[in-house]
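// run 5 | inverse folding | seed 20
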């Protein structure tokens, strides 16, 4: 599987003909490594409704007919926006797709869509191409982060916010890495805007529980 970091919290996971786009905030993202019209996903997964995650989901989904997975209230709103291929789990729910599955997990944060709908944020546990990837979404540090590995067994890669201010910071991220227990951690949601400037190399040195892989926007990590 290739994990391509597209800036902020946006990643593309790809294997064969399947391309999963997570949190497609590209238009207006100062760190975006691609434009929305360059993306051709087969699936789009959303952690929550904030504009720095929801991003270009409507435009990309309408153009590609990618299967969108979002928490039920947001899924309903996407349907009203004209997105036709939408799956609507709630926290704890699993959606199967060709080649894998995705489950919504708790994340301690808030969530409002650009249209003002208040809903519940999530993390994403993704089983795909024989690997398990855990996108924590926007979250603070909380102890139930450790439940994912108890449930799934080994987590290959955690995509972890470390920017602080809106989410946990690198100091809390070190503890989160211990709780999550992934083989590898890719930090994200930092250095996009002034309030979330952080030193990812220091985070890499401080994390002992996992190998930290720091990606620049546009870089790909293969597992
Ligand atoms: Ni957020
Ligand atoms: Mn965010």
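// decoded
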């Amino acid at each position: 599987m290739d994990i391509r970091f597209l800036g902020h919290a946006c990643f593309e996971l790809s294997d064969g003909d399947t391309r999963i786009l997570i949190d497609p905030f590209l238009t207006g993202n100062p760190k975006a490594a691609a434009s929305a019209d360059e993306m051709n996903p087969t699936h789009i997964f959303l952690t929550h409704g904030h504009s720095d995650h929801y991003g270009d989901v409507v435009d990309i989904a309408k153009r590609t007919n990618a299967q969108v997975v979002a928490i039920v209230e947001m899924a309903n709103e996407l349907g009203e926006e004209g997105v036709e291929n939408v799956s609507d789990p709630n926290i704890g729910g699993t959606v199967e797709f060709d080649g894998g599955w995705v489950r919504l997990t708790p994340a301690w944060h808030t969530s409002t869509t650009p249209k003002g709908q208040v809903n519940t944020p999530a993390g994403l546990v993704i089983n795909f191409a024989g690997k398990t990837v855990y996108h924590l979404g926007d979250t603070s540090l909380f102890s139930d982060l450790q439940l994912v590995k108890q449930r799934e067994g080994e987590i290959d890669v955690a995509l972890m916010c470390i920017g602080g201010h809106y989410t946990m910071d690198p100091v809390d991220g070190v503890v989160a890495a211990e709780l999550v227990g992934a083989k590898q951690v890719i930090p994200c949601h930092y250095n996009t805007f002034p309030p979330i400037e952080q030193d990812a190399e220091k985070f890499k040195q401080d994390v002992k529980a996992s190998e930290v892989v720091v990606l620049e926007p546009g870089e790909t990590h293969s597992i």
